[in-house]
Amino acid sequence: MRCKLVIADDHKLMLAAVRMALQDAPDMEIVGETQAGEAVLPLVGRTSPDVVILDLRMPGLDGLRCLELLRERHPDIKPIVLSGSDDPAAVEASFARGAVAFIQKNIDPADLAAVVRQAIASTVFYAVANASPVPAAQREWDLTPRETEILRALAEGQSNKEMAQHFWLSAQTVKYHLTNIYRKLSVAGRTQAVRVAYEHGLIENPVLSQTAVPA
Protein backbone atom coordinates (compact mmCIF):
# COMPACT_ATOMS: atom_id res chain seq x y z
CA MET A 1 0.00 0.00 0.00
CA ARG A 2 1.42 3.39 -1.01
CA CYS A 3 1.85 6.15 1.53
CA LYS A 4 -0.11 9.26 0.51
CA LEU A 5 1.58 12.62 1.07
CA VAL A 6 0.55 16.27 1.01
CA ILE A 7 3.31 18.88 0.63
CA ALA A 8 3.03 22.51 1.77
CA ASP A 9 5.67 25.14 1.01
CA ASP A 10 5.33 28.73 -0.16
CA HIS A 11 8.07 28.30 -2.78
CA LYS A 12 7.16 26.59 -6.06
CA LEU A 13 10.78 25.57 -6.53
CA MET A 14 10.78 23.72 -3.22
CA LEU A 15 7.55 21.91 -4.07
CA ALA A 16 9.08 20.82 -7.37
CA ALA A 17 12.27 19.70 -5.62
CA VAL A 18 10.40 17.53 -3.12
CA ARG A 19 8.26 16.09 -5.90
CA MET A 20 11.37 15.16 -7.91
CA ALA A 21 13.09 13.69 -4.85
CA LEU A 22 10.14 11.40 -4.14
CA GLN A 23 8.90 10.63 -7.65
CA ASP A 24 10.83 7.36 -7.92
CA ALA A 25 9.75 6.09 -4.50
CA PRO A 26 7.42 3.16 -5.31
CA ASP A 27 5.79 3.28 -1.88
CA MET A 28 4.91 6.99 -1.90
CA GLU A 29 2.33 9.07 -3.74
CA ILE A 30 1.98 12.86 -3.57
CA VAL A 31 -1.77 13.50 -3.55
CA GLY A 32 -1.72 17.26 -2.98
CA GLU A 33 0.45 20.39 -2.94
CA THR A 34 -0.13 23.89 -1.67
CA GLN A 35 1.79 27.14 -1.17
CA ALA A 36 -0.53 28.52 1.50
CA GLY A 37 -0.82 27.49 5.12
CA GLU A 38 -4.57 28.15 5.23
CA ALA A 39 -5.04 25.66 2.38
CA VAL A 40 -3.40 22.76 4.24
CA LEU A 41 -6.42 21.64 6.27
CA PRO A 42 -8.92 21.81 3.37
CA LEU A 43 -6.45 19.93 1.16
CA VAL A 44 -5.98 17.28 3.82
CA GLY A 45 -9.76 16.94 4.09
CA ARG A 46 -10.06 16.32 0.36
CA THR A 47 -7.12 13.95 -0.09
CA SER A 48 -6.90 12.00 3.22
CA PRO A 49 -3.09 11.71 3.26
CA ASP A 50 -1.01 9.61 5.62
CA VAL A 51 1.72 12.25 5.89
CA VAL A 52 1.91 16.02 5.58
CA ILE A 53 5.31 17.54 4.79
CA LEU A 54 5.26 21.24 5.54
CA ASP A 55 7.44 24.29 5.87
CA LEU A 56 7.28 26.43 8.99
CA ARG A 57 7.34 29.84 7.31
CA MET A 58 4.29 30.25 5.11
CA PRO A 59 2.12 33.33 4.58
CA GLY A 60 -1.11 33.51 6.52
CA LEU A 61 -1.25 30.35 8.60
CA ASP A 62 2.29 29.34 9.54
CA GLY A 63 3.62 25.80 9.92
CA LEU A 64 3.39 25.71 13.70
CA ARG A 65 -0.29 26.62 13.63
CA CYS A 66 -0.84 24.02 10.91
CA LEU A 67 0.74 21.42 13.18
CA GLU A 68 -1.63 22.35 15.99
CA LEU A 69 -4.68 22.09 13.74
CA LEU A 70 -3.52 18.80 12.23
CA ARG A 71 -3.07 17.29 15.68
CA GLU A 72 -6.49 18.57 16.75
CA ARG A 73 -8.48 17.56 13.65
CA HIS A 74 -6.45 14.76 12.06
CA PRO A 75 -4.51 13.04 14.87
CA ASP A 76 -3.76 9.97 12.74
CA ILE A 77 -1.78 11.96 10.18
CA LYS A 78 2.00 12.11 10.65
CA PRO A 79 3.32 15.66 10.10
CA ILE A 80 6.93 16.13 9.00
CA VAL A 81 8.54 19.57 9.07
CA LEU A 82 10.86 20.36 6.15
CA SER A 83 12.50 23.65 7.04
CA GLY A 84 15.43 25.88 6.18
CA SER A 85 15.83 26.69 9.87
CA ASP A 86 18.06 24.88 12.34
CA ASP A 87 16.92 26.94 15.32
CA PRO A 88 16.62 24.59 18.33
CA ALA A 89 13.57 26.54 19.49
CA ALA A 90 11.84 25.87 16.16
CA VAL A 91 12.73 22.19 16.40
CA GLU A 92 11.33 21.88 19.92
CA ALA A 93 8.21 23.89 19.02
CA SER A 94 7.57 21.59 16.07
CA PHE A 95 7.89 18.41 18.13
CA ALA A 96 5.73 19.90 20.88
CA ARG A 97 2.96 20.41 18.33
CA GLY A 98 3.04 16.86 17.04
CA ALA A 99 5.70 16.71 14.32
CA VAL A 100 7.25 13.27 13.97
CA ALA A 101 10.40 14.62 12.32
CA PHE A 102 12.22 17.86 11.60
CA ILE A 103 14.21 17.75 8.36
CA GLN A 104 16.41 20.56 7.10
CA LYS A 105 16.04 21.65 3.49
CA ASN A 106 19.71 21.13 2.73
CA ILE A 107 19.23 17.37 2.90
CA ASP A 108 20.61 15.41 -0.03
CA PRO A 109 17.54 14.83 -2.26
CA ALA A 110 18.61 11.22 -2.70
CA ASP A 111 18.17 10.70 1.05
CA LEU A 112 14.75 12.31 1.44
CA ALA A 113 12.61 9.23 0.72
CA ALA A 114 14.58 7.10 3.16
CA VAL A 115 14.40 9.71 5.91
CA VAL A 116 10.65 10.11 5.38
CA ARG A 117 10.17 6.33 5.63
CA GLN A 118 12.13 6.19 8.86
CA ALA A 119 10.28 9.18 10.28
CA ILE A 120 6.94 7.54 9.49
CA ALA A 121 8.16 4.40 11.27
CA SER A 122 9.34 6.54 14.21
CA THR A 123 12.90 5.24 13.93
CA VAL A 124 14.74 8.46 13.11
CA PHE A 125 13.54 11.42 15.12
CA TYR A 126 12.03 11.70 18.56
CA ALA A 127 8.22 11.87 18.30
CA VAL A 128 6.39 13.83 21.00
CA ALA A 129 3.30 11.95 22.10
CA ASN A 130 2.01 14.60 24.50
CA ALA A 131 0.58 18.04 23.87
CA SER A 132 3.21 19.63 26.08
CA PRO A 133 6.97 19.59 25.49
CA VAL A 134 8.72 16.75 27.28
CA PRO A 135 11.69 17.87 29.40
CA ALA A 136 14.95 16.56 27.98
CA ALA A 137 15.88 14.82 31.25
CA GLN A 138 12.69 12.74 31.10
CA ARG A 139 13.06 11.51 27.54
CA GLU A 140 13.99 7.95 26.81
CA TRP A 141 17.21 7.48 24.89
CA ASP A 142 15.38 5.61 22.11
CA LEU A 143 18.43 5.33 19.85
CA THR A 144 17.99 3.46 16.58
CA PRO A 145 20.52 0.76 15.59
CA ARG A 146 22.03 3.16 13.03
CA GLU A 147 22.36 5.92 15.63
CA THR A 148 24.10 3.50 17.99
CA GLU A 149 26.53 2.56 15.23
CA ILE A 150 27.28 6.19 14.52
CA LEU A 151 27.65 6.92 18.23
CA ARG A 152 30.17 4.09 18.44
CA ALA A 153 32.05 5.49 15.43
CA LEU A 154 31.97 8.89 17.11
CA ALA A 155 33.62 7.38 20.19
CA GLU A 156 36.30 5.92 17.92
CA GLY A 157 37.11 9.42 16.72
CA GLN A 158 35.78 9.09 13.17
CA SER A 159 35.00 12.30 11.30
CA ASN A 160 31.71 12.92 9.50
CA LYS A 161 33.43 12.13 6.20
CA GLU A 162 34.86 8.88 7.54
CA MET A 163 31.46 7.82 8.90
CA ALA A 164 29.80 8.63 5.57
CA GLN A 165 32.31 6.42 3.77
CA HIS A 166 32.11 3.65 6.36
CA PHE A 167 28.30 3.45 6.42
CA TRP A 168 27.75 4.31 2.75
CA LEU A 169 25.75 7.42 3.66
CA SER A 170 25.84 10.99 2.43
CA ALA A 171 27.57 13.53 4.67
CA GLN A 172 24.22 15.24 5.19
CA THR A 173 22.60 12.03 6.42
CA VAL A 174 25.43 11.53 8.90
CA LYS A 175 24.87 15.09 10.11
CA TYR A 176 21.15 14.33 10.55
CA HIS A 177 21.89 11.26 12.63
CA LEU A 178 24.34 13.21 14.78
CA THR A 179 21.83 16.01 15.32
CA ASN A 180 19.26 13.45 16.36
CA ILE A 181 21.71 11.73 18.72
CA TYR A 182 22.64 15.03 20.37
CA ARG A 183 18.97 15.89 20.88
CA LYS A 184 18.11 12.50 22.35
CA LEU A 185 21.06 12.59 24.73
CA SER A 186 20.49 16.29 25.54
CA VAL A 187 24.08 17.22 24.71
CA ALA A 188 25.72 19.96 22.68
CA GLY A 189 28.37 18.04 20.80
CA ARG A 190 30.59 15.04 20.20
CA THR A 191 32.55 14.95 23.46
CA GLN A 192 29.45 15.21 25.63
CA ALA A 193 27.63 12.60 23.55
CA VAL A 194 30.41 10.07 24.02
CA ARG A 195 30.64 10.81 27.74
CA VAL A 196 26.88 10.32 28.25
CA ALA A 197 26.95 7.17 26.12
CA TYR A 198 29.70 5.68 28.28
CA GLU A 199 28.08 6.76 31.55
CA HIS A 200 24.75 5.16 30.67
CA GLY A 201 26.10 2.09 28.93
CA LEU A 202 24.76 3.01 25.50
CA ILE A 203 28.05 1.88 23.99
CA GLU A 204 30.89 -0.14 25.46
CA ASN A 205 33.66 1.82 27.16
CA PRO A 206 36.95 0.35 25.86
CA VAL A 207 38.80 1.36 29.02
CA LEU A 208 36.40 -0.55 31.25
CA SER A 209 36.37 -3.56 28.94
CA GLN A 210 40.19 -3.71 28.98
CA THR A 211 40.39 -3.52 32.76
CA ALA A 212 37.51 -5.84 33.53
CA VAL A 213 38.48 -8.91 35.55
CA PRO A 214 37.07 -12.20 34.23
CA ALA A 215 34.60 -13.88 36.57
Average of the residue pLDDT scores: 81
Name the shape in a single word. elongated
- How would you write the strand order of the largest sheet? 2-1-3-4-5
Strand content: 5-15%
Number of strands: 5
- What CATH calls the topology of the largest domain is Rossmann fold
Along the chain, the helix and strand elements come as EHEHEHEHEHHHHHH
Q: Could you state the CATH homologous superfamily of the largest domain? A: Response regulator
Give the uncertain stretches in residue-range form.
126-139, 208-215
Q: What is the total number of structural domains?
A: 2
CATH architecture name of the largest domain: 3-Layer(aba) Sandwich
Number of helices in the DSSP assignment: 10
Question: Which range best describes the helical content: under 10%, 10-25%, 25-40%, 40-55%, 55-70% or over 70%?
Answer: 40-55%
Q: Which structural category fits the helices and strands?
A: alpha/beta
CATH first level of the largest domain? Alpha Beta
Main sheet properties: 5 strands, parallel
Question: Kindly, what is the distance between the CA atoms of the first and last residues, rounded to a whole number of angstroms?
Answer: 52 Å
What oligomerization state is this entry in?
single chain
Radius of gyration: 19 Å
